[in-house]
């Protein structure tokens, strides 16, 4: 179509350029064009958070962001958080504390949790629960997700202290 | 030979049954490397999307696809007329009815599939959906099953004979054109006689509202017809991939060996992904027509509006007892709203599922259950949302009847339960409605639960709270929710359980590799339950190879043995049993190999953790690893090379997990907001395979119970419009609304299951719903409440308080 826009994104440290219709959603571009299928589509109304990514330092629901709005943005998806040999502390913690079951919400949940711990490195349980209230999980009842995030916070803080 | 590690270390090294082994699935899921159906991309793949009916009941006068076809990128628009020559415009349902794949002359519920657009990408497909012109003539809408049974409006003209007579349905005679079946169990006359002459009788009517399993991943499929080789591959959100293959073969005429069905990772199922949906059929047809792969993935609104709902039972109960509280009889009648097509996912002989477990955990001498299924202008379905077939309804019914009987008797409901429990020594126990409960120790579990929460102390606190409320010192009331449930899971014995004639056995096939690792394939499919972790634990204990060396594969019909899939908590009871039995076959052959290698008689060696040892001479042994190598690479007289086994397990009975739950709730009567102060859950699922996974299942099931009891509903208006079609209106609890749960357990193994396990995934939902509901109802009991219907959302709770005069 003639009305395509030229979009530049930096995703997980890599630059990408492509053409997109103005109505194209960020989640669509990530999943279909960049083959980053970690973020998922759960509701398309910003409620479930399965599509959560970090955009310019903020958690966003990529199912309701136009990719044109993201032009020039730095984006982190679950694929950018850790690598097979060096998992992010949260990825380890979710495994250790059984913070996931079907895994569909997990990429969005961990991406959100990582941002949450950056914003608030020492959250209370209530702050964690409030901080992830935009991410729905149908399997775990959240108890072990909260446990995982609190454990990761403790570990990250200990690592920070050791580094100082 | 000597070992330098202890026996305990050898046991621990296996990571077998009973340990909280970390999940092997998590590596891919935490890194965003799961492979769900929407992640599948094939070269040249097209995308399908549905034109859906905005009306709940209308005749279709015409469909014009010209404008849609003219849109660049649109490849095809299928309507019923295109499917009719293939005989695919209707399809059989799991309940013996049939269902339109695409609207054939009329639509019967809002959101019904009318036409299937196939286009180059999702955006184009969505544009084309808008361009399909459908001319509807609105018809009278029936959303109330009681009115439907009285109405002259015929919903299913295809089920009325030309002379106006009503032919029998799949489950016998029908009383009205909109009537589906009557199903009766037990002795009605004898039950009525007991109730009519009883000292105390409690009656109640309750509506278990319509809701939806709503897994976070919606339903979808990718069909790829390889015309060169004549082979169809179908990936999809299938809780029962083999059933899908058989049904697809019957419908399409493609031989079963030429169909490969794959369930990739599934983003939650909870019953929603058991049935066969029009989208699956249309993606297949579209791939056959276009010759390229076609993907269909529904959006959330489509999922909530058109795929399988749960519950929608209008239940009427009568329960009788002596003055001392001994229950003497139970009568239950259900008017079941099945929507426009009877697409319930139940074993064929059970049109109301296992609703006849409604005598619960109690020794009730005589009982009767009657269920009438009814057509309305609502979406079809009737699946078991995180429960075995209709067990949630049954347990809610009996646990509410116990509470109203307690009110009638002016007795503590915990005590009333104790008086009536089936006693430990009565097992195996045959209930009045036919089921043979395998094992249980209810009183022990109940006493443990009540002691754990200090039940007596809670009641004293509640009494004080009532005084304080009446004195104007507080605006919060306190509820103590109790439930004691018995589930019936693990369907099931082929003699009485089948779906569309397919017996409900399950299977496991094991192949041991020469160097002592293994792959096992099962007929089930995990949707988050962690089968790859836990089934390997069963095998590790059975065959003495480390769980970490055992790969579990499920969901690919080309490689997995035939099985009936995962729902109704049947994986552990049925496929888990098959796994243990296949493991024992491996062990039997390994014993012969070990004896040969050790130069003793077969009977002179015995299995010990990870090896066979010579009896009385533990220093002489062969490990399973040694044996595996020898099985392939050493000529053993009289034995075939190799070490493989397969087991198809037809369970002799269902399993009957049970549990005792207590919920303590504070409710603000002015806002109607309930605060869950405490939730204690004791589960007895028999032998425990992985405590960590069990607890995770319980947390999740309880949260889905909280959702259903406190707000989650598929609601319709009088015009048949779905009022809760997005997550804006359909309640899914967030971390903010969910409490921490206390879990506890007793262990009463199943006597007939090879490892004594009973299944657990659904128990917390089954027991949780009445527990949350009873907590709300109990809070208002001291103020005159007897029964209010779920869901207890803030508005309805406020209304309850208001109707009891608590707002001054």
Q: Can you describe this structure in just a few lines?
A:
Chain A is α+β, with helices and mostly antiparallel strands. In chain A, 35% of the residues lie in helices and 15% in strands.
Structure description:
Chain A: Residues 5-81 form the 2Fe-2S ferredoxin-type domain. Chain A: GO terms for molecular function: 2 iron, 2 sulfur cluster binding; metal ion binding; oxidoreductase activity. Chain A: This is (2Fe-2S)-binding protein. Chain A: InterPro entries: 2Fe-2S-bd, 2Fe-2S-bd_dom_sf, 2Fe-2S_ferredoxin-like_sf, 2Fe-2S_ferredoxin-type, Beta-grasp_dom_sf, Diverse_Oxidoreductases. Chain A: Keywords: 2Fe-2S, Iron, Iron-sulfur, Metal-binding, Oxidoreductase. The complex is a heterodimer of chains A (164) and B (808). Chain A has two domains: 5-80, Beta-grasp domain (Ubiquitin-like (UB roll), Roll); 89-163, Orthogonal Bundle (DNA polymerase, domain 1), CATH 1.10.150.120. A five-stranded mixed beta sheet of chain A has the order 2-1-5-3-4, with helices on one face. In chain A, helix 2 packs across helix 5 (143-163). Helix content of chain A is 35%, strand content 15%. Chain A has 164 residues and is α+β, with helices and mostly antiparallel strands. Chain A has helices spanning 26-33, 89-96, 106-119, 125-131, 143-163, and strands spanning 5-11, 14-20, 52-55, 58-61, 74-76. In chain A, strand 3 and strand 4 (58-61) form a beta hairpin. Chain A starts with a strand and ends with a helix. The model of chain A has no long low-confidence stretch (mean pLDDT 97). In chain B, helix 11 (391-409) packs parallel to helix 19, helix 15 packs parallel to helix 16 (571-598) and helix 16 (571-598) crosses helix 17. In chain B, a hairpin with a 4-residue loop joins strand 31 (658-668) and strand 32. Chain B has three domains: 7-34 and 506-649, 2-Layer Sandwich (Aldehyde Oxidoreductase, domain 4), CATH 3.30.365.10; 37-141 and 218-266 and 273-306, Alpha-Beta Complex (Aldehyde Oxidoreductase, domain 3); 309-491 and 654-803, 2-Layer Sandwich (Aldehyde Oxidoreductase, domain 4), CATH 3.30.365.10. Chain B is globular, with a radius of gyration of 28 Å. Chain B is of the alpha+beta class and 808 residues long. Helices cover 29% and strands 25% of the residues of chain B. Chain B has 20 helices and 33 strands. A seven-stranded mixed beta sheet of chain B has the order 3-7-1-14-11-12-13, sandwiched between helices. In chain B, strands 9, 10, 15, 16, 17 and 18 form a six-stranded mixed beta sheet that branches. A four-stranded mixed beta sheet of chain B has the order 21-31-32-33, with helices on both faces. The model of chain B has no long low-confidence stretch (mean pLDDT 97). The longest helix of chain B is centred in the last third of the chain and has 28 residues, at 571-598. The chains are: A alpha+beta (164), B alpha+beta (808). Chains A and B meet through helix 1, helix 2, helix 3, helix 4 and helix 5 of A and helix 2 and helix 18 of B.
């Amino acid at each position: 179509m003639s009305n395509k826009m030229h979009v530049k994104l930096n995703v997980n440290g890599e630059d990408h350029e492509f053409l997109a219709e103005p109505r194209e959603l960020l989640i669509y571009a990530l999943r279909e064009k960049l083959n980053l299928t970690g973020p998922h589509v759960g509701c398309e109304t910003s409620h479930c958070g399965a599509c959560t990514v970090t955009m310019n330092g903020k958690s966003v629901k990529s199912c309701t962001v136009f990719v044109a709005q993201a032009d020039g943005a730095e984006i982190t998806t679950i694929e950018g958080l850790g690598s097979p040999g060096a998992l992010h502390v949260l990825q380890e913690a979710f495994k250790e504390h059984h913070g996931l079951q079907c895994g569909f919400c997990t990429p969005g949940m961990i991406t959100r949790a990582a941002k949450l711990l950056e914003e608030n490195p020492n959250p209370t349980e209530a702050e964690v629960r409030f901080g992830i209230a935009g991410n729905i999980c149908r399997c775990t009842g959240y108890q072990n997700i909260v446990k995982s995030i609190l454990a990761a916070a403790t570990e990250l803080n200990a690592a920070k202290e050791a580094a100082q | 030979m000597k070992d330098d590690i202890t026996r305990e270390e050898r046991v621990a090294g296996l990571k077998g049954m009973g340990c909280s082994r970390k999940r092997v699935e998590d590596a891919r899921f935490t890194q965003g490397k799961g492979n769900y159906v929407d992640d599948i991309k094939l070269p040249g793949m097209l995308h399908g999307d549905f034109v859906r009916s905005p009306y709940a009941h209308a005749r279709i006068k015409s469909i014009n696809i010209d404008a849609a076809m003219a849109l660049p990128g649109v490849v095809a628009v299928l309507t019923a007329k295109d499917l009719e020559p293939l005989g695919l415009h209707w399809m059989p349902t799991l309940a013996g009815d049939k269902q339109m794949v695409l609207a054939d002359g009329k639509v019967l519920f809002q959101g019904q599939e009318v036409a299937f657009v196939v286009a180059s990408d999702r955006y184009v497909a969505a544009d084309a959906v808008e361009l399909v012109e459908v001319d509807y003539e609105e018809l009278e809408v029936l959303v109330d099953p009681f009115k439907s049974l009285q109405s002259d409006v015929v919903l299913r003209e295809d089920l009325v004979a030309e002379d106006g007579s009503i032919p029998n349905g799949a489950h016998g005679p029908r009383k009205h054109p909109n009537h589906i079946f009557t199903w009766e169990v037990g002795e009605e006359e004898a039950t009525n006689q007991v109730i009519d002459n009883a000292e105390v009788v409690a009656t109640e009517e309750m509506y278990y509202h319509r809701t939806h399993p709503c897994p976070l991943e919606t339903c979808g499929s990718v069909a790829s017809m390889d015309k060169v080789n004549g082979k169809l591959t179908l990936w999809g959100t299938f809780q029962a991939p083999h059933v899908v293959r058989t049904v697809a073969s019957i419908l399409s005429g493609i031989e079963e060996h030429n169909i490969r069905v794959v369930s990739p990772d599934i983003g939650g199922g909870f019953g929603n992904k058991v049935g066969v949906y029009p989208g699956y059929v249309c993606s297949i047809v579209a791939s056959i027509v276009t010759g390229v792969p076609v993907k269909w993935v529904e959006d959330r609104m489509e999922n909530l509006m058109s795929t399988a709902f749960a519950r929608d039972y209008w239940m009427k109960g009568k329960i009788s007892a002596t003055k001392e509280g001994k229950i003497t009889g139970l009568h239950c009648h259900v008017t079941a709203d099945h929507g426009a097509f009877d697409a319930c996912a139940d074993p064929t002989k059970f049109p109301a599922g296992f609703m006849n477990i409604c005598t619960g955990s109690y020794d009730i001498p005589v009982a009767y259950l009657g269920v009438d299924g009814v057509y309305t202008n609502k979406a079809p379905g009737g699946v078991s949302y995180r429960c075995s077939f209709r067990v949630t309804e049954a347990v809610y019914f009996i646990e509410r009847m116990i509470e109203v009987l307690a009110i009638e008797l002016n007795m503590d409901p915990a005590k009333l339960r104790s008086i009536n429990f089936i006693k430990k020594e009565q097992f195996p126990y045959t209930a009045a409605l036919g089921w043979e409960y395998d094992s249980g120790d209810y009183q022990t579990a109940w006493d443990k639960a009540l002691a754990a929460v200090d039940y007596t102390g809670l009641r004293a606190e509640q009494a004080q709270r009532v005084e304080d409320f009446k004195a104007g010192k507080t605006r919060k009331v306190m509820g103590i929710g109790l439930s004691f449930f018995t589930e019936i899971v693990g369907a099931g014995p082929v003699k009485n359980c089948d779906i569309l004639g397919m017996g409900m056995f399950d299977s496991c096939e094991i192949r041991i590799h020469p160097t002592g690792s293994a792959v096992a394939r099962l007929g089930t499919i995990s949707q988050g339950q962690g089968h790859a972790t836990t089934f390997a634990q069963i095998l590790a204990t059975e065959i003495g190879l480390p769980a970490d060396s055992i790969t579990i594969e499920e969901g690919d019909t080309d490689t997995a043995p035939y099985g009936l899939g995962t729902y109704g908590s049947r994986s552990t009871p049925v496929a888990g049993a098959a796994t243990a039995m296949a493991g024992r076959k491996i062990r039997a052959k390994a014993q012969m190999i070990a004896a040969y290698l050790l130069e003793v008689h077969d009977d002179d060696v015995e299995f010990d953790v990870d090896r066979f040892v010579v009896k009385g001479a533990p220093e002489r042994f062969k490990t399973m690893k040694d044996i595996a190598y020898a099985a392939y690479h050493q000529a053993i007289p009289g034995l075939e090379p190799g070490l493989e086994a397969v087991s198809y397990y037809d369970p002799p009975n269902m399993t009957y997990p049970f549990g005792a739950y207590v919920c303590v709730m504070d409710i603000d009567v002015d806002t109607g907001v309930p605060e869950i102060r405490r939730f204690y859950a004791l589960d007895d699922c028999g032998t425990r395979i992985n405590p960590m996974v069990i607890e995770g299942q319980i947390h999740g099931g309880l949260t889905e119970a909280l959702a259903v009891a406190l707000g989650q509903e598929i609601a319709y208006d009088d015009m048949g419009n779905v009022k809760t079609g997005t997550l804006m209106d359909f309640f899914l609890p967030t971390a903010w609304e969910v409490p921490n749960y206390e879990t506890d357990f007793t262990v009463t193994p199943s006597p007939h299951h090879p490892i004594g396990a009973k299944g657990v995934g659904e128990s917390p939902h089954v027991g949780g719903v009445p527990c949350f509901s009873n907590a709300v109802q109990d809070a208002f009991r001291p103020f005159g409440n007897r029964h209010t219907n779920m869901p207890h959302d803030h508005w309805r709770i406020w209304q309850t308080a208001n109707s009891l005069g608590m707002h001054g």
